[in-house]
Amino acid sequence: MSNKPLKASDSKKLKDLFAKKQKAIETTHMCPEYMYIICEGTKTEPNYFYGLVDEINRKYYRYVSDNRIKVEGTGKNTKGLLEYAREVVKKRCPEAKSVWLVYDKDDFPYDNFDNTQFSAENRHDKVKYHVAWSNECFELWILLHFQEMNSNIIRDEYKKRLDGHFEKMGYGKYEKNIEEIYRILKDKTEMAIKRARKQYEQYGNDPPSKCCPATRVYELVETLQQYLS
C-alpha cells in the first residue's frame, strides 16, 4: 500500500465527495441550520432555551459534527443587544443563518424596545435576525403554560401567580434560576403556543411597546420544535 501523499486534485475530490455525502445526510434527516439565540437575561431565558436546544442537538449528534444551535445569556440591555449580537456571531458562529434576540420590555424606554425589533427585522445582512420579545417579561411566556393572560399585571404579580402553579406541581415557589425550567414546562408547550399566538395577533400592527401583555417567544419555540417532530 502506497504511503505517498494524495495529489492536491485528488484531495480536493475527496473533500468534495465527503461534503456532498454530508449534505445528503443532513438533508435526509432535516438537520438544523446554524442558529444563534442571544438572550438579554442570564438566568431564566437561557436556562429555558438550553433545555430545548440540548434536546435538539442530542437528536442530531449522529449526523452532524457539532452543535448547530447555540444559546447565550448576555445581561445586555435592549438597546445594545442587536449590535452585540452582530459582533459575537461573527466571532463565535460565523456559519449562522439566523439569529434570534430574546428580550423583555421591563423598564426600558418605549423607543428602545420598538427600535430593536425594527432594526433587527430590517437588517440587510447575510444573517437573518428575528426577535422574540416579551412585554412585560419572560415570565409571561411561562405563565401562558398554565393560564390565559388578557390584562397587564406588574412583575410581582407574575411571580405570585407562578408560585401558585409551581407549588401545585410540587416544585415549590417559582425561581428565576431553575435549570430544569424547560423540562418542567415541556408537556404544556403546545397550549402556551396557542395562547401566545392568540394573544399577540389581537394587536394587529401595533408596535411592540403597545402590545401588553404579549410575547413573540412562541415563534422561536415553534421554529425549534420543527426539529423535534
The residue fraction in helices comes out at 40-55%
Cα gyration radius (Å):
20 Å
Q: In which order are the strands of the major sheet placed?
A: 2-1-3-4-5
Shape: globular
Work out the number of β strands.
5
Mean of residue pLDDT values: 87
DSSP helix count?
Answer: 9
What does the largest sheet look like? 5 strands, mixed
For the record, the count of structural domains works out to 1
How far apart the termini lie comes to 47 Å
Main structural class:
alpha/beta
Q: What's the helix-strand series?
A: HEHEHEHEHHHHEH
* β-sheet strand percentage: 5-15%
Question: Low-confidence segments, ≥5 residues, pLDDT <50?
Answer: 13-29
Description:
It is globular and about 70 Å long. It has helices spanning 8-28, 44-60, 78-92, 110-121, 139-143, 155-168, 181-185, 189-201, 217-225; strands spanning 35-39, 69-73, 98-104, 128-135, 214-215. With 229 residues, it is an alpha/beta fold. The longest helix is centred in the N-terminal third of the chain and has 21 residues, at 8-28. Strands 2-1-3-4-5 form a 5-stranded mixed β-sheet, sandwiched between helices. It has one domain. Helix content is 48%, strand content 12%.
